[in-house]
Write a structure and sequence with these properties.
With 147 residues, the protein is α+β, with helices and mostly antiparallel strands. The protein has a single domain, classed as tt1808, chain A (Alpha-Beta Complex). The protein has 3 helices and 6 strands.
Length: 147
């Protein structure tokens, strides 16, 4: 039996298998605990950074707190907006996950607006929908429909 009471245990047991499958399917690059420093105020580690030639996704793992977790994800998207490696991407995508619940976010770089998808994707019930969206983000630039 596995005790899933910590953020690290959820990352290892619940989140990593989903990301590993995504990487195998899309051939994207995965960085874990990726350091990001834009300034003294905007610095830290991204739990997961997934990149391919045209898009990237940041995934923030949280134990249970989706509200504070989405705030942290938003700050990470803002930091990525100022990161030179994001290139010409009009949209930056992020995902918040407790392992059993996944929620999408997005930063429109032109309007500097953060969008929080109201739909939550509980696993395992919505695994197929979740994977379809993640694959779509990495495969078809700017053709994302969260529903």
């Amino acid at each position: 039996m596995v005790n899933l009471t910590t953020e690290m245990s959820k990352r290892e047991i619940l989140i990593s298998p989903v990301i590993t499958y995504l990487i195998r399917f899309t051939h994207a690059h995965l960085r874990i605990e990726y350091p990001l420093k834009i300034s003294e105020q905007l610095q830290g580690y991204l739990d997961y950074l997934i990149e391919n030639n045209q898009e990237l996704i940041v995934i923030e793992a949280k134990n249970e707190d989706l509200v504070n977790g989405f705030t942290q994800l938003s700050v990470e998207l803002i930091a990525l907006d100022q990161w030179e490696r994001t290139g010409n991407q009009a949209l930056l995508f992020g995902v918040l996950s407790t392992g059993t619940m996944w929620q999408f976010g997005m930063l429109n770089r032109g309007t500097k607006t953060i969008y929080q998808d109201i739909k939550l994707f509980p696993l395992p019930d919505d695994l197929e929908s979740l994977m379809r969206i993640l694959i779509n983000i990495l495969s078809e630039k700017n053709k994302v429909n969260f529903s």
